[in-house]
Design brief:
Structural class: alpha+beta
Number of helices: 15
CATH architecture of the largest domain: 2-Layer Sandwich
Largest sheet: 9 strands, mixed
CATH class of the largest domain: Alpha Beta
Distance between the termini: 16 Å
CATH topology of the largest domain: BirA Bifunctional Protein, domain 2
Oligomer: single chain
Number of domains: 2
Helix content: 25-40%
Shape: elongated
Number of strands: 19
Length: about 500
């Protein structure tokens, strides 16, 4: 395995030297491409294609990266690529004069600006007939573009991990990756547009927090030298957004990075993007309706459709989501009833019946959620709200009035994966203090993911918090499911990687 790698690196080093020599020749001619600061364009490459009828025989100025060159004696065809697409250019030796020889100093990956008129070749391809050109940047390391037209094989990116480590090459060479990641960006943009139109105010809350709360997760810890104290990177957005509710901002949201010191998998990245919102005077059903509208609207605006297919399953986000009580879903798929989880001993036995390993720190609620994850979630392919979660895993949610062991909380599922988590928010500061004390006891018993006791948040609640509905949506998970990605890394530009 080492010999081919060594041979490939040696070949690449030789190509780098050739390109550096070309750069030196350009500089000796007074044409240093890196001295260029600005190049004025009139159109994107895709716009030239789309507006051909209006632009035919008109002069345009475009720029992009050279992805193909075919020099055929007195004529040269090349393709440029920018964010929007590709476009062919055409140069004739008798028109360019001595400058035509400069084409020999071009390489795949170089940036080129051209000015010329638009026409269609005899084969029907829309093309710019170049009258002027300027080399705008030199790629001194070879970019492994496909060697034949239409060939999508990888030449340098030999494994999936290398695609993630060298995402810039993945974006250049893999149209699917580029479109998937750009779709993720548009999902975020349309989510903002939707929430703004709904009357929500976007805010920013601290990433560095004295105590990271709002979720069951282990935080990253850092140190602030000037303040001489430890801080934690936030694990959720919740508690600071609720402080803003208390401060009188009735509809508030944030889209931001959160950090959880946990494992890396196809579904988890320690640094990910979360959207959380809180709406005063709203309840769980209001948030369900909001989720349905938001997912439908984003799907229509980003993808132009509401139907999606993954692994042979088709869903339609234009239809209402199914709403199922958690314990009913567990009974439907395992035969276990609510009575099987009345005591910790019975819950442990019930979990063992369905093949679930129970750890010492697990509570009844924790076991119920494991059963959901292992035995039920895979069946929730259609858009579904699962509601009525255990109180010991939902310390920030209101109790169910008629069943105080459970809370007014739901999770939203698509294609068997959780995409949303929401509460009718607990706003009783006395009960919240009791819940924090219970969580503190779990932490003292060794559960590092139990919610911390946040006295400052309790003081804020004691000043009065309105009834409210809250929602969290993992942007990466949402993008992953809507784009059909197999791994969360496929929708994160620069995912965290193990040292290679």
């Amino acid at each position: 395995m080492q010999e081919p790698t060594h041979h490939r690196l040696e070949e690449e080093n030789q190509l780098v030297q050739i390109r550096l020599q070309k750069l030196q020749q350009l500089r000796e001619l007074g044409l240093d491409p890196f001295a260029i600061e600005r190049y004025e364009t009139t159109h994107t490459l895709d716009a030239v294609q789309e507006q051909f009828e209006a632009l035919e025989n008109q002069t345009v100025s475009v720029a992009g990266r050279i992805v193909a060159i075919r020099k055929m004696g007195k004529a040269t065809f090349a393709h440029l690529m920018d964010t929007t697409g590709k476009l062919q250019i055409y140069l004739k030796a008798d028109e360019m004069g001595e400058r035509y020889d400069l084409i020999d100093l071009w390489d795949l990956g170089d940036y080129l600006g051209v000015k010329g008129f638009v026409f269609r070749t005899r084969t029907g391809e829309i093309t710019v007939h170049v009258q002027e050109f300027t080399l705008l940047a030199k790629a001194v390391r070879p970019v492994p573009f496909p060697k034949e037209k239409g060939d999508q094989r990888w030449y340098e990116l030999h494994d999936v991990e290398q695609r993630y480590r060298q995402r810039y090459l993945d974006l250049l060479l893999n149209p699917d990756s580029r479109q998937r990641l750009l779709a993720r960006c548009r999902i975020v943009s349309e989510m903002r547009r939707f929430l703004d139109a709904e009357g929500f105010i976007e805010v920013e809350t601290p990433v560095l927090q004295p105590m990271a709360g709002g979720a069951a997760a282990r935080p990253f810890v850092t140190y602030h030298n000037a303040l001489d104290r430890e801080f934690q990177l936030r694990i959720a957005l919740e508690l600071y957004l609720k402080r803003l509710l208390i401060g009188g901002i009735d509809k508030v949201y944030e889209i931001g990075r959160v950090f959880r010191n946990e494992g890396i998998s196809t579904r988890h990245n320690p640094e990910f993007t979360m959207m959380e919102l809180y709406q005063a005077y709203a309840n769980l059903e209001d948030i369900m309706d909001l989720v349905e509208r938001m997912f439908r609207t984003i799907a229509e605006r980003v993808f132009g459709r509401t139907t999606f297919e993954l692994h042979g399953v088709q869903i339609d986000l234009a239809k209402p989501w199914e709403r199922i009580r958690l314990m009913d879903a567990i009974q439907q798929h395992t035969g276990l009833t609510e009575a099987d989880f009345e005591t910790l001993e019975r819950a442990v036995l019930s979990a063992e019946k369905v093949g679930i390993h129970v750890e010492r720190k697990d509570t009844i609620g924790g076991i119920i959620e494991k059963v959901l994850e292992k035995c039920v979630a895979e069946h929730l392919q259609q858009p579904t709200f699962i509601y009525g979660f255990p109180i010991d895993t939902s310390p920030l949610a209101k109790r169910e009035p008629n069943n105080p062991r459970f809370t007014r909380r739901f999770e939203g599922y698509l294609f068997g994966k959780e995409v949303a988590n929401a509460f009718s928010e607990l706003n009783d500061p006395l009960e919240q203090r009791d819940r924090f004390e219970q969580q503190y006891a779990l932490r003292q018993a060794g559960d590092e993911e139990a919610h911390p006791y946040d006295e400052d948040f309790l003081i804020a609640m004691e000043h009065g918090m309105p009834p409210a509905g809250g929602l969290g949506v993992g942007i990466d998970r949402m993008a992953m499911l809507l784009t059909g990605a197999e791994s969360i890394r496929d929708v994160i530009f620069f995912p965290q990687m193990r040292e290679g």
